[in-house]
Amino acid sequence: MAIRLNKGIVLQEVDGQAVLVGTGRNAAYWRINGTALLMLKRLLDGNTAAEVVESIARTHDIDRLRVKADIDQLIAALVQARLVHSDSLD
User: Fold this and answer.
1) pLDDT tens digits for the chain (90 residues)?
2) For FRET with 4, which of 12, 36, 45, 60 sits at 20 to 30 Å CA-CA?
3) How far is it, in rounded angstroms, from Cα 67 to Cα 22?
4) CA–CA separation, 82 vs 9, rounded Å?
């Protein structure tokens, strides 16, 4: 599963964090922390959620269930806010 930014959404990195800004009908402003940015960038690069979970859990020695819960929550929130879209949330 790959996610994509919706049309009119711009991702801008600032000091290790990021903002997602939408215009027009998708008007929104979201600020995300460095961990969420790492997850989002990997998903936007075409990695599956499972691949991102495994990579982050291994690299940062974090429980996989915790990482999975965090990434699921991030994806759901971004989809609900109409900032990204996906065919599936594997």
Assistant:
1) 679 999 889 999 988 889 998 887 767 788 999 999 999 999 999 999 999 999 999 999 999 999 999 999 999 999 988 889 986 544
2) 60
3) 27
4) 9
Distances (CA, A) of 61 to 13, 24, 55, 67, 89: 25, 41, 10, 10, 24
* Phi, psi (degrees; rounded to nearest 5) at 42: -65, -40
Residue type, 27: A
The residue among 59, 23, 61 whose CA lies nearest residue 42 is: 59
Strand positions, DSSP E, the chain = 3-5, 9-14, 17-22, 28-32, 84-86
Which residues partner with 12 through β-bridges? 19
- Give exposure, 53-82, as e/b (b: 16+ Cβ within 10 Å): beebbeeeeeeeeebbebbeebbeebeebe
